[in-house]
Amino acid sequence: MSDRRLIVFNLLRGVAAISLALAVAAIFIFISSDEPLTALKYLLVGPVVSFKATGNVFNTTSFLTILAAMIPTIFSGLAVCVMFSANQFNLGGEGAIMLGGFVGALLGIYLDLNTGLHQVVCVLAGAVAGGLIMLIPAILKVKLGASEMVTSLMMNYVVMFVILHFLNFVFADRSKGATQTFPFLETARIPEIISNGTKLTWGFVVALIFVVIIALFMYRTKWGYAIRMIGINQSFAQYSGMQVGTVIILSQVIGGMLSGMGGSIEVLGRFSTFLWRELPGYGWLGITIAILAKNNPIFVPFAAFFIAYLNKGCNLMATYSDVPSEMIDIIQAAIFLFFAAEQFLAKYRQRIVVRNAQRDLALQETAASQGGINS
Amino acid sequence: MEQEVIVEQKEIVEQEDFVVQMRGISKVYPNGIAANKDVDFLLRRGEIHAIMGENGAGKSTLMKILFGLEQPTSGEILINGQSVAITSPNKAISLGIGMVHQHFMLVPSLTVAENIVLGMAPTTKSRFLIDFKKAVQIAEENAARYNLRIDPNAKVIDIPVGMKQKVEILKALVRGAKILILDEPTAVLTTQETSELFKELIALKEQGFTIIFISHKLKEIKQITDRLTIMRGGRSMGVYNTADISEKEISRLMVGRDVVLKVVKDKSQPTETVLKVRDLEYTNRWNKKMLDKVSFSVRKGEILGIAGVEGNGQRELVEMLFNLNTPDAGTVTVCGESIVNLSQDKIRNRGVSLVPEDRMTYGIADIASIEENVISDRFGNKRFNKGPLFNMREIHHESQNLIVDYRILAKSPKQQVKMLSGGNIQKVVVARELSSMPTLLIADQPTRGIDVGATEFIRNEIVELSRGGTAVLLVSADLNEVIELSDSLIVMYGGKIVGYFEDSSQLDDLTMGEYMLGLKHQTEEEIAKVSYE
Q1: Of A70, A72, A341, B220, which is least surrounded by CB within 10 A?
Q2: Element (H, E) at B79
Q3: Exposed, middle or buried, A251 (CB in 10 Å: 0-12/13-18/19+)?
Q4: Most confident among A41-50, A75-84, B112-121, B454-463 (mean pLDDT)
Q5: Mean pLDDT throughout B267-289?
Q6: In chain A, which residue ranges form alpha helices assigned H by DSSP?
Q7: Residue A239 and residue B392: Cβ atoms within 8 Å?
Q8: Angle at A232 between CA A226 and CA A236, to 5 degrees
Q9: Geometric angle at alpha carbon A95, from A93 and A98, rounded to 5°
Q10: Which of A233, A353, A375 is facing B366, going by the closest CB pair?
């Protein structure tokens, strides 16, 4: 597998999957639009190019907003990577993100600390809240054998309604027309890297740092190793003497902490009060991202960028042409289909494998005929 | 010279009556393993034809291609002179090819008759209900016609292995098979059951059936087959009349050298008792008593073998010793301390190692690398960690050493374990389990289904370990292996120990067969001798 040609093939397969998906999207656009070329233009290059009478220029602001949109999804993508690597199909990211955001927001309003320290405390509290809530599906799984997929999925709604209850009846700012909390203290808000209104906050840097941390954690520590081995073969892990139950819980708690952290960073960076009235949707995106990244943390930012770019393109297309923004769902579904299908281009892959095997064989035989070791 | 042989063969083809001709078959699996390389296989009508070769030689692949389970990468298949594409087992069956797999494909909870007619069950007049009486009748008629004795009303779960095999053969015959492929049919049978099977196969041959017999047991091949094809490294090493070729010659062609299947070992000098098992009992969830007051001891420096036909409690016993299952009653101690209900890492910390029976389920994580597989029991050691991070250099060093010491044939330590051959996968498991210098090694079917070279190597490693002072408990269904490798030996039958032989070098397979089939058993006093204090 370490053959260079196969690596190139896998990369090409990724590109081909995306191209095919976009081709399918293009077909739908041609069917549903009277101005398909304009629509395609906005979808494909709109996110980074401004179309002006004087010519097309690179749109830095728009590019930075795409990066800003990646902040929560990098965290949720990492969370899903860790949990799916342990073969735990925990879908509670949504709830953990919302809870993390809510807890971070409350501490941002009611806690009085110096700037710098305040943000760190809020974000860590969000992470702890996310980790604690994930203990519920994790422990139910380990102690009672309840499917974490079902329990975590249902838990999302419990978490959401509990938060809404407290938001409506305890923490609401009655002076405002909409249901929202009091504004965060200035000391708690996460500033932009360059103040230009793009919402590209220092959270982006933190997210990238966590990509590295989680990659190291998964591939260079004993805990990450145990998580991966349990994911590949739980019987093997148990027989080898790993603490399977503990590690299963650990993986989900880490997933919850990453989600909670992403939630609080997003809330304290993008908004000035807590105003989420429903599940924010980043958890679901995290699943898409983790699948695109094949559960490898290093690929998460790229997958997150792709999704953010696509989102932006679709929004622009919906604004400036007559194609509905629902189109993005069709494109995403098509990408999923092509990525998830392991057999995609399998015939071509088989040809490469056959060719490589024959080459190896020929080499061995020459070696053998020259009196080398016949392996 | 080779060319002449091929020309000769082509001439023969035109004169002779071949039911199956496979020509120039090559197969490369998606994982890159070239399992067959330009193989020719010609089957005469009405013969018993052996395919011999070590594991990984490509026998199974060739037969899977013939049975439609795999598609050849290139090559041609002719059945009765007609070129065919065998795209599925259904197609193979319609062409009159039947296969009896090494691991039976039966539904345990259904009766023998139901299994035989599965998928083609006779219906009552209403056409919605299965006519069970008719099914039993079909089973009985065919059993009588082919002289295969079965009990059509028994549930498959309750019948012995030998009968299961007959059910498999009947299944194929009822579906109209004229060519039978038997994949290592004797691997799970006792000596007596084997000779019964051979009589039946010869009877089938006389009725005009053609039989392909996959095996690597030399004696059996000599006894029953007319011709044999030898495979090595994915290639055919030629076709021979069984009568014209000596066992030595066969073994030379199979492995390219003369195999010494004898294990050379000094006499054991056992010292203190390590493992003590007392009155172990276990009833499984189908209410079958799998372990019935099992007591024995293993001492430092000796190899105690457990012989027995599979399914007589050996698997359950091993599960209890490694806490993969909980006994109903009884005690297990290692060096005086109980290990019942201890977690696996604590059991391992007491110096217990296990080479599991099913290497793919317990032994390895298939898509992980060799390196990741050999450190699975020791990755938490201080040696392999630097603060929170792994000490990658130590880990590389360890895996590199194990690959060299245990002669694992791999491109690199980063190679996925599932890309290795069966023998090398088993060496990965053995490398991990033996290199931890255990006080007690439990080796459960340590050489099942692997090639002669790896088998020999693993057996020698086990002997060496035991002579260095490790207590070894060897469980094996391979009679030759338990007799050769063990110092002393117990036989299990029906969940009980039925015999204890202090010196296994005095044993022969016929006597053993009688104990394994439950025809003989020793008195309780004799058996109690294996329980040392």
Answers
A1: A341
A2: strand B74-79
A3: buried
A4: A75-84
A5: 87
A6: 4-32, 36-44, 60-85, 93-110, 117-139, 148-169, 203-220, 222-232, 234-240, 244-270, 282-292, 300-320, 327-340, 346-369
A7: no
A8: 70
A9: 105
A10: A233
Tokens of A282: 């980043």
Contact A222 B367 (CB under 8 A): no
- Contact assignment for B28 to A238 by CB distance below 8 Å: no
Give, as one character, the DSSP assignment of residue B263. Answer: P
Q: Which residue has the higher pLDDT, A355 or A223?
A: A223
Q: Mention every residue, 6+ apart, whose C-beta is less than 8 A from residue B394.
A: B383, B384
CB B135 within 8 A of CB B108: no
What are residue B355's DSSP bridge partners?
Answer: B443
Q: How far apart are CA B343 and CA B355, in angstroms?
A: 17
At A198, give phi and psi (nearest 5°).
-85, -10
Q: Cα B362–B363–B366 angle (5° rounding)? A: 95
Closest in A221, A226, A357 to B28, CB measured: A357
User: Contact, B374 vs B426, CB < 8 A?
Assistant: no
Structure ipTM: 0.82
Q: Are B316 and B280 in contact (CB under 8 A)?
A: no
CA angle A131, A135, A140 (to 5 degrees): 160
DSSP 8-state symbol, A188: G
- What CA–CA distances, in Å, run from B304 to B351, B444, B455, B494, B518? 17, 12, 18, 19, 20
Tell me the two tokens of residue A205.
Answer: 């840097």
CB contact under 8 A, A361 and B34: yes
B523 has a chain A CB within 8 A of its CB:
no
Q: What is the pLDDT of residues A286-329, one digit of tens each?
A: 998 998 888 999 999 999 998 899 888 888 888 888 877 677 67
N-to-C CA span, chain A: 19
* Average pLDDT for chain B: 87
For chain B, the first-to-last Cα distance in angstroms comes to 66
